[in-house]
Amino acid sequence: TPGTFFSFMAAVIMLYEPVKKLSKLNNSIQQGLAATDRVFDIIDKESDIREHHNPVDIKPELHRVTFKNVFFKYDNAMVLENINLDVKAGEILALVGMSGGGKTSLVNLIPRLYDVTEGSILIDGIDIRKASISSLRNQIAIVTQDPILFNDTIRNNIAYGNQNAANREIEGAAKAAFAYDFIQRFPDKFDTSIGELGGRLSGGEKQRICIARALLKDAPILILDEATSSLDS
Questions:
Q1: Above pLDDT 90, what percent of the chain?
Q2: Considering only CA atoms, which of 71, 116, 62 is closest in space to residue 89?
Q3: Disulfide: which of 60, 71, 179, 182 matches 118 by Cβ 3.0-4.6 Å?
């Protein structure tokens, strides 16, 4: 009958949008599953940095860092050759050189982001390859060339350096990094969300947040890898 026909057509029209959304949902699910596979591939990948079978804990105190005949290469390209350094506790060492000269590679060897190809790096006479990775990295605060920030508040980004820190300590670190004043200009101040990779901040502001985080950690070894390249002089 005409009534049945029109009822059927109305039902078809009403079903069109939900079915269309279901097809799009399936595409999103498939993309999500593919992304999940890639994430688990990374999670399941074994690190090239292996912990010693009987690791030594490095105590939290001022340290002497020594490079002995260190060689390092990426694949077949030699980056560092026969590096010898002795940095005593409390000393400041500046590495100056042309871009691509191996400065970043050298400092990345200290927290064992990579292992030396030849030679050894010692902290207080202990070869870092024999130290527990967690105790080694607990002794180091590092600010990299490219600021590493999270899609979270300014407070939580700074507190990542010491998650047990009180608010006054976080604010003190921000003042020491000369970040406090610009943070206070935001309506939500320290509770301001900075977006993915700190997208709501300028380059200099990102670096100051990272410096504040490193200062809050208060580690015996502080590494600044061109950490002020975006700061105003």
A1: 42
A2: 62
A3: 71
